[in-house]
Amino acid sequence: MRSFDLSPLFRSTVGFDHLNHLLETAARADEASVSYPPYNIEKHSDDHYRITMAVAGFAESDLTLTAEGSTLTISGKLTRDEAKVEFLHRGIAGRSFERRFQLADHIKVGGASLVNGLLSVDLVREIPEAMKPRTIKIDAAPDAKLIESKAA
Fold first, then answer.
1. How confident is residue 135, by pLDDT bands cut at 50, 70 and 90?
2. CATH of the domain at 47
3. 71-117 pLDDT, tens digit each
4. What are phi and psi of 128, to 5 degrees?
């Protein structure tokens, strides 16, 4: 495992210290957990995204979605009793999983659906009004009045 020291980058920045944590977490990701279950991340527009995850064999009651801070956690655990079933071949993976996604600032979960074994999680960027760019009107009138009063 490689360790990156990013402290020189943080000398001239404020509020980006969580990037170091994100990079370390990504470097520690286990290969097995990265490949199951398979998923896609789609961009529908600048403010709308969708995570689609293949969860064949899982019912809605077997899946848990949790949004906490900037982390979306999707976990699945089969609750059916399969001890009574004798498999001649088992090609559909039904093992438990937990997958975490780091969401960017102002990304919120808009909803989720499970259709034909595909779990779709809609994500929406909601920028607060205070954070949106705004145009500030330049008013030249007060300065002009000040100059006129000095001249008189």
1. confident
2. 2.60.40.790
3. 999 999 987 766 677 888 888 878 899 999 988 888 899 999 999 99
4. -60, 150
Domain count, the chain: 2
d(CA 69, CA 72): 8
Do 43 and 67 sit in the same domain of this protein? Answer: yes
How many other β-carbons are positioned within 10 Å of the β-carbon of residue 8? 7
Does 23 share its domain with 83? no
* Residue linked to tokens 């999707």: 74
Scanning the structure block, which residue is given the tokens 């809609």? 122
**With the CA atoms of 89, 94, 95 and 100 taken in that order, what torsion angle do they form, in degrees rounded to the nearest 10?**
140
What the block records as the tokens of 146 is 């000040």
Instruction: Please give the residue range of the domain that contains residue 24.
Output: 1-35
pTM (whole model) above 0.85: no
Q: Assess whether 110 and 138 both reside in one domain.
A: yes
